Protein: ABC transporter G family member 1
Amino acid sequence: MARVVAEDSSLPESRAAACDSPTLAQLLKCVSDVRKEVTGDETPLHSVVDVSSSGIETRPLPFLLSFSHLTYSVRVTSKVGLTSFFRRRAADDPVSGEPLSSGTKTILSDISGVARDGEIMAVMGASGSGKSTLIDALANRMAKGSVKGSVKLNGEELESRFLKVISAYVMQDDLLFPMLTVEETLMFAAEFRLPRTLSKSKKKLRVQALIDQLGLRNATKTVIGDEGHRGVSGGERRRVSIGIDIIHDPILLFLDEPTSGLDSTSAYMVVKVLQRIAQSGSIVIMSIHQPSYRIMGLLDRMIFLSRGKTVYSGPPSNLPLFFSDFGHPIPDSENRTEFALDLIRELEGSPGGTKSLVEFNKSWQALERGNQINPTANVSNLSLKEAITASISRGKLVSGSNGSTSMIPTFTNPSWFEFAVLSKRSFTNSRRMPELFGVRLAALVVTGFILATVFWRLDRSPKGIQERLGFFAFAMSTTFYTCADALPVFLQERYIFMRETAYNAYRRSSYVLSHSLVSLPALLFLSLAFAAITFWPVGLDGSFLFYFLIILASFWAGSSFVTFLSGVVPHVMLGYVIVVAILAYFLLFSGFFINRDRIPPYWIWFHYISLVKYPYEAVLQNEFTDPTKCFVRGIQMFDGTPLAAVPNALKLKLLEGMSSSLGMKITSGTCVTTGADILKQQVVTDLSKWSCLWVTVAWGFFFRFLFYLSLLIGSKNKR
Structure:
């Protein structure tokens, strides 16, 4: 009988009947009901949910995952040399004893087996035996067409889209947001993986029950942490990583060494949780290096691999008989798995490899199948659609499915809901690391202060014109270079994103929109700070509002450009090199160093794709479009020429001579050059300032779209 231990063990008859053959979802509901009766609060306290095997009602098993003749090879490049050639000719495969085929390496070779719901299948073997590769092959995490063989669920081929909905994959690495607490991390996972139709209180109940099952109650309010922030322990991080992937109670659960890094007690507790998941109607397949004796008692089926070949497949209870028949009986005092792994390693080092054990396993398995009257007597003949319908009717939380395989949605929640949850998570994580924004703001303030003091109160003179042009070129390029610190943001989140989108936790488009929204408040503040620090001290003319807007647009375009590069370039240092180089090219062709009409025709295309060109021309037009402002008067026209050194009296005589020659009076106060003349000299005539602003904004959206394409194409998370 299933037993729920709580403050009050008395249950109404109807509820007790519902808990007689419990599923994981029903167990959670039972715990919730007891809490409501005792405390009136839906938030669960610590509880022990004990399910014995005798409490599980005998029923046909609706799910059967079968895989047959799985083979996977990779190309191997090696140095060509006379010595290595003869060595390759002389070398034999240590597994099969057969000559090695040049150019390819077989990772998996003709692997077959079955996994049933209600059971845990463990894939075992030494390092390099192909455990993780087999798990990836079953979870469809390999490039299409790279794996030969078939994987079927209830006799039907699994489509990639459908598999993502009904399965989950727990990676070996811990990929978590460092400044979220354990509870927040699991709650965000529940928001992504559980349907929106499920109430907030039920999602919280699910999270709280999972926290208890994973033994994380004492770390509920502790942040995950990273190298610079103290957080949970390594073992607790591992359990959180498992929790976020099993939050939605999947039908198929794949785990790559879930007990890695845990002590024996924690590892046992994790596998015990996996056993309960299996008993609720899931197929659990995991790789594990060397399970303890207690964990062995929780496993239902095992596959031992050696260099990609099966050396044993069956229940743990058959291990003694198998190795006894092979001529290597397991001593009573030894751990069965340790003995098996040691024997496999010993055979791998022998001249014939494990070929004899591989061949013996094939004959032994054939004999075992022959001795069985009906090997699939306990397996239901339900179709996949019928099995899923039966599973949902028993309370499985399959992403809001209504039971029809054709009606199962690709994504659990609508895009606007994903966008809201992603934005909330990013804001929460960023808010707890204010030092990152503080450093960026400090750098910008220092740069603005230096510019304001160097270009203090520029006058309207020929030199003032050149100084204004230099200020604008440096200020606009500064906004782009400052955006380079956005490069590591996505690079740090890349693998979290790949893990979450691999099984359709949310849409890539939702992530891109959220990523853009979260960056805007910081860009607004930085733009306002830089504009305020430089506009009035430098003595700029024109509209301050437009000056602020073009700086904001520059930050937006620069941030989008760097974000796009972060989706293409996998390494931070390589990304910085590329960003600095490309921004330098943008500045070179912006029109400051060389006017547009002087750029060679074969380089003019670079001028029009330069991100710095448009904000640079926009601020020039904002500064020089006022027709009442004069920048060169009378004798100032001689500044910057050899005549600049002559006395002013002589300059006035020169003006009189020019006046008589031109037929117009030119005095020392006559305006010779206006802002419009400067714009013509700089060849800033093709677009208005507002057009430049909109083009800059459009560049930002364009690079965000390219970022989306890079995620769509380059983040498949497959071998």
Remarks:
- The CA atoms of residues 208 and 515 lie 29 Å apart.
- The two ends are 45 Å apart (CA to CA).
- The longest strand covers residues 104-116.
- The chain has 26 helices and 14 strands.
